[in-house]
Design a protein that fits this description.
0% strand, helicase activity, signal, 105 residues, helicase, 5 helices
């Protein structure tokens, strides 16, 4: 009987370890996928708006926005965000992602 309990405990431990490893892999894949999408969005914005006067004028406001974690929203940044969203309506990026993209220009 104790041998049966030992084998049952070993099997239960193996199943539990496998489920934790699988959830770790799924979580890691989700995070990496999200970071890649964010990186692609900021890369698309920074390359297509490199010479745009409205976007370039918003760099200081974008820096304040990023540094204050969104608390400071300047007029030039708001104008640039509206301009970017009008030019690229298919872009699904947050204000923070767009502000970081403006800083990379």
């Amino acid at each position: 009987m104790s041998r049966l309990r030992l084998l049952s405990a070993a099997a239960l431990l193996a199943v539990a370890a496998n489920s934790h490893a699988t959830s770790f892999i799924v979580t890691t894949d989700s995070i990496v996928g999200g970071l890649k999408a964010s990186s692609d969005a900021t890369s698309d914005v920074s390359s297509s708006f490199r010479d745009d006067k409205i976007v370039r004028a918003a760099r200081d406001d974008a820096a304040s926005f990023v540094a204050s974690e969104g608390a400071i929203r300047g007029v030039k940044l708001e104008s640039a965000l509206d301009h970017i969203r009008q030019q690229t309506p298919q872009l699904n990026a947050t204000d923070a992602q767009l502000a970081q993209a403006i800083l990379t220009i």
